[in-house]
Fold this sequence. Notes:
This protein is of the alpha+beta class. It is 28% helix and 30% strand.
Amino acid sequence: MRPLTDDETKVLFEKLTKYIGRNIVHLIDRPDEPYCFRLQKDRVYYMSEEIMRRATPIGRRNLVALGVCFGKFTKTGKFRMHITALPYLSQYAIYKVWVKPNGEMPFLYGNHVVKAHIGRVTEDMPEHQGVVILNMADVPLGFGVSARSTVDMRKVDPTGIAVFHQADNGEYLREEDTLF
């Protein structure tokens, strides 16, 4: 377990900024206690500094996971968000899309969100921006990238893709072997 380098921190924060914007400050400067990001086997973990200090004496080989896994760095240096970061993304997300009950299952099976399944959308959402997908009862289902802006979404036919799928709660079952 080690701190992130400057390049790794920059890539991580750029990815988080797509979803939560300036609210990234709330992840680090929390009122209860300070939190930090740490890297363990190409995976980025988010934890309190108290937990980090207690885990310092544990060897790297013996340490499996610590805190909440936000994602992992690929071999090319890009950062891929994991579904385990959803509670923090949904809490601070700028843009949200609410899905109708008939669109929940297709999304949870890994499909993109089509316009016919959208119940509500945050106003002034730009194209290719990170969004959190919620059901109509405000339960977070996953996250993705907007395929169209809010204005363009109104003009699209009902079968047109509105949000590209990135991660959903169904991944806990589909990818349980590789998720952690």
